[in-house]
Amino acid sequence: MNEFGGQPNRIEKNTKIKGDITSEADFRIDGKLEGNVKTSGKVVIGKDGYIKGKVECVNADIEGKFNGELMVTDLLALKASAVIEGTVSVSKLAVEPGATFNAACTMGKGASVVSSPKMETKSNEPAKAS
């Protein structure tokens, strides 16, 4: 076991879970999760992974799909195949060309949905990185 957080957890491809997950360890999702994830570690959504719900974590790497509320206290890295929809609160954001980012985003050091003011856009078009 690792000193901090224990062994990483995996939800494998072809696995579907409905419910809430709380952990101190890292999480990798290659299957489908409908629910909430709260961890003091890192969340990785693999290329075939999908989460619908709320995710709270320190760092996140996303290759697959996410729909819901994403709260990352440090770095969110979106790979080229990532598709993000919903609301995002993040301290640092890295987006590869090709990623789809259709989300309302609050960004900054220590950003959180509760304490930071919401960004308002005048356009009905969501932001899209390409």
- Using only C-alpha atoms, the radius of gyration works out to 14 Å
Strand content: over 45%
Low-confidence residue ranges: 112-124
Give the N-terminus to C-terminus distance in angstroms.
39 Å
Task: Please give the structural blueprint.
Layout: E1 9-11, E2 16-18, E3 21-23, E4 27-29, E5 32-34, E6 37-39, E7 42-45, E8 50-57, E9 59-62, E10 65-78, E11 83-95, E12 100-107
Parallel strand pairs: 1-4, 2-5, 3-6, 4-7, 5-8, 6-8, 7-9, 8-10, 9-10, 10-11, 11-12
Could you explain how this protein is built, in words?
The protein has 130 residues and is mainly beta. It has one domain (9-107). The protein has no helices and twelve strands. The protein has strands spanning 9-11, 16-18, 21-23, 27-29, 32-34, 37-39, 42-45, 50-57, 59-62, 65-78, 83-95, 100-107. Strands 1, 2, 3, 4, 5, 6, 7, 8, 9, 10, 11 and 12 form a twelve-stranded parallel beta sheet that branches. The protein is globular.
